[in-house]
Design a protein that fits this description.
43% helix, five-stranded parallel beta sheet, alpha/beta, Trna Endonuclease, Chain: A, domain 1, 3 domains, 19 helices, 17% strand, Arc Repressor Mutant, subunit A, Rossmann fold, single chain
């Protein structure tokens, strides 16, 4: 049949056959129950499910696991359609017309019994995809799952047209528990922690050093790990930032991204960078670049906590790399501040769990690494340090938490927590109680954490 597309019907059908395992079993993958359970709950609402997160964090695999679950539940293979919109065969035809043609060919040749489950990977590559999704949703022709590697997927495109019709799920690189499962280790009881303590400690060193991208976690050769991480960094910068925002020159963006990733867990003052030749000459340009990097999930920015939204927006933010492996790339794999890496790991875990996060400062200038809110209430004040054996470090962390609990309005009832690489204890100081917890036990446990927020339409 003649169409306005460059790609033929035969080529589309070949792409469908390549991406869908109609005549062969689904490839084996490592389960990620945290996200797969959430995805199942979100899809049960009938809304469009949107998985977002940094490139190569495992979104596609989570979709593949969702396909496997549907098949296990008895959904016919003909009712499932999976497509990666970065397939080179589609590159000249990335329009809603291509999606319509794919939909028609699937219906004609595979005759789904009911509304098919359509999985669209990296859908932000198609201009106007949001309106196509809206039509499918309103006519109830499909059950829709989409992924994207840029937060703007939930900005102008989806946020405007699909408001109230989609449910977002942000996917992060591996948690430490997932990292161990990718290494073939199962830690489910306190006895496992004791029995495998040497292996777990070694794995945690790797987790800090090389980060938590799923593929990197399964590579043993350090040189291959470096090559893989370099490829991720370049791909994110070029495809999800430079190409996305049509940047003619990427030198300043490249320099800034390396600076931010290398200085993870650092308060960023754009004014201090303005005028430095390698970053750009204007505050507006620098701010745009940082927003682009945040939009590509390369970094997270924590505001300084203040009950005043105006002061919160005006103060400098604290930068955290989305993954310590990308921080290693930015540093040229040189030795880094392990305390800052530890703090970034904790922040990323809290973000994964759905907390609203800030950093804090007391009236006397003491810094608090993490202030965690839920439903408008301060629940946790957290300090992160390597070890509590040094008296100076110990006094600093205790003083900052106690001062913050007093200085910050409505923080008095918050739980005070110090995470370190050492034994746990309870400290009582100035009428307050501080729990010191081994960071590995905290990462692998469920105490002092919140359940993931319940689904709500975007």
């Amino acid at each position: 049949m003649k169409t306005d597309l460059n790609i033929s019907d035969h080529e589309i059908l070949q792409a469908l056959a390549d991406w869908n395992d109609w005549n062969r079993p689904e490839p084996e993958t490592v389960p990620r129950p945290f996200y797969e359970n959430r995805l199942r709950a979100l899809s049960a609402t009938g809304e469009i499910v949107v998985l977002q997160g940094v490139r190569r964090c495992g979104k596609s695999t989570i979709l593949r696991n969702a396909v496997r679950s549907l098949l296990a539940e008895g959904v016919p293979q003909s009712d499932i359609l999976f497509l990666n919109m970065e397939d080179p065969r589609f590159m000249g035809d990335l329009t809603p017309a291509l999606l319509n043609r794919i939909r028609e060919l699937h219906k004609r040749h595979f005759r789904p019994a009911g509304p098919p489950h359509i999985f669209l990977d990296e859908v932000q590559n198609i201009p106007g995809f949001d309106k196509w999704l809206l039509t499918e949703y309103e006519l109830r022709r499909s059950r829709l799952y989409v992924t994207g590697s840029n937060a703007h997927l939930l900005g102008r495109e989806i946020g405007t047209v699909l408001s109230g019709r989609y449910l977002p799920l942000t996917v992060h690189p591996l948690s430490f528990a997932e990292f161990l499962s990718f290494r073939g280790m199962s830690v489910t009881t306190p006895l496992d922690l004791v029995r495998l303590r040497v292996e777990i400690a070694g794995a945690f060193d790797d987790y800090l050093t090389w980060g938590a991208f799923p593929r990197v976690a399964r590579i043993e050769d350090p040189e291959v790990k470096k090559l893989e991480l370099h490829a991720y960094f370049d791909s994110i910068l070029l495809r999800d930032v430079a190409a996305r925002h049509r940047l003619d020159s990427v030198e300043s963006l490249l320099n800034l991204s390396r600076y931010l990733l290398a200085n993870t867990a650092t308060i960023l003052s754009l004014n201090s960078l303005k005028g430095k030749g390698s970053f750009g000459s204007s505050y507006h340009l620098l701010n745009s670049y940082v927003e682009y990097l945040e939009g590509a999930f390369l970094v997270n920015r924590l505001p300084l906590f203040d009950w005043s939204l105006q002061r919160r927006a005006a103060n400098p933010k604290k930068i955290h790399a989305v993954d310590t492996g990308l921080s290693a790339v930015a540093c040229g794999f040189a030795r880094r501040d392990s305390g800052k890496l530890l703090e970034t790991v904790v922040i990323n875990e809290m973000l994964r769990l759905g907390w609203e996060l800030y950093y804090g400062k007391t009236g006397k200038g003491f810094e608090v690494d993490c202030i965690a809110l839920k439903d408008g209430r301060i629940h946790l004040l957290i300090q992160v340090c390597q070890e509590m054996g040094d008296p100076k470090t110990r006094n600093r962390e205790i003083r900052a938490l106690c001062r913050a609990a007093v200085d910050i309005p409505y923080a008095r009832d918050a739980r005070l927590l110090i995470l370190s690489q050492g034994p746990g204890e309870v400290i009582r100081h100035d009428g307050l109680e501080i729990q010191v917890v081994d960071v590995i036990e905290w990462l692998l446990g469920t105490e002092l954490k919140t359940p993931f927020p319940e689904p709500s339409a975007g």
